[in-house]
Amino acid sequence: MKIFTASFFGHRQIDNVFVIEQRLQEIIQELLISKEYVEFLIGRDGEFDQLVASTVRRCKRTVRDDNSALVLVLTYTTAEYRNNELSFHEYYDEVEICTEAAEHHFKSAHQIRNRFMVDRSDLVVFCVERNSGGAYQTMQYAKKANTNIVNLSDVIH
Fold this sequence. Notes:
Layout: E1 3-10, H1 17-34, E2 37-42, H2 47-62, E3 68-74, H3 79-83, H4 85-91, E4 94-97, H5 99-102, H6 106-119, E5 123-127, H7 134-144, E6 149-151, H8 152-156
Parallel strand pairs: 1-2, 1-5, 2-3, 3-4, 5-6
Helix pairs in contact: 1-2, 6-7
């Protein structure tokens, strides 16, 4: 089976939520329809990540739910995860801890996890509106790595 991997990164707070959600839904639906199996990789670090997770779950219910997995990729094991592990596994299809990131200082762990996700992705979807922050740095990394990217914010501006 051919696994197609898509990862998602965006600022913690986003503008134009409804426009971004509509574009996200189009991309996710297209992947569910056109790919044999899709792995959706996300973090859990802000508004954009929550929007992606809920959109993937909705599309799995309404389009197709037998050919994909919503995968939460954590930088390290958090107290929130340890205290709510069952709930996490009920919401996400899979939960991974990025061991490479977990072995580094917490200030660099997110960037290490993000690069790990980019490196294993066939498509990286961004919602980057500013030239600063972790999502912006990850987008610069993905561009240098010649990864197939989409910036949802480009659609709005």
